[in-house]
Description:
It contains six helices and eleven strands. By secondary structure, it is α+β, with helices and mostly antiparallel strands.
Amino acid sequence: xxxxxxxEVTRRALIPLVVGRRVQALHxxxxxxxxxxxxxxxxxxxxxxxxxxxxxFALSGGFELVVHLGMSxxxxxxxxxxxxxxxELEGVALYYHDPRRLxxxxxxxxxxxxxxxxxxxxxxxxxDPAFSPDYLFARLRATRxxxxxxxxxxxxxAGVGNIYGDEALFRARVRPTRRGHRVTRREAGALVExxxxxxxxxxxxxxxxxxxxxxxxxxxxxxxxxxxxxxYGRAGEPCPVCGTPIRRTVIQGRSAHYCPRCxx
DNA sequence: ATAGGCGCCTGTAAGC
DNA sequence: TGCTTACAGGCGCCTA
Length: 264
């Protein structure tokens, strides 16, 4: 399911349900995927933060529950056919739904992310001033990888995934296959702006629910940003700007969509 | 450094 | 209809 907007929408929905409540128990049958969860029992949830695509639940007593939703994870208010973890809190239960089981939980001492190497290596948040045109330009200039691969690299910027990567490139009018070192300073600036704009709009729309309808908000409703997607999943359809058919290609083993006329 | 492939998992849609 | 294949919002690891 989730890229940064879906994770952020999840975070905002969970705050009023969870913050201030004590965790009574955390049930599951997969200690390899959901690690150290016995450490959460009896602790109060003090805050929920987000870093890239990770959710960070601050627990009383100096612990933290780190959650990564993988491709199909999400929280629901009731059980589903693919409930993998049940979080029992005072007065509420949360059901972690994850058909593909690619999501992971870790309970760790607060801020101790040695078990979550990617979290340690994450690049700047997209809305942080550190994710600046100069910064992105420098990162692009240093590599021959396709620019889309650079945007998907969580150590470059945290939270961009396959959908919003394509959309940001479309807005910046840069073709996803372009090599990093051939991106101009001006284009790097447009990419920073494109990433921020698309993420912001997607958060405001409650995230994107694609054709398979697998992404749902915590209350079970869908997100509406898919109606505003310009290129993602639209191969063969006309570009919303110039009408040229959208093309699909593969970069890093993942589909990439672009307008061959608007994006050079 | 980087591309390509596979693995982790399961579900759904498309193609024959 | 039934079977097979491709593909899916993520990420880590291996080989060349």
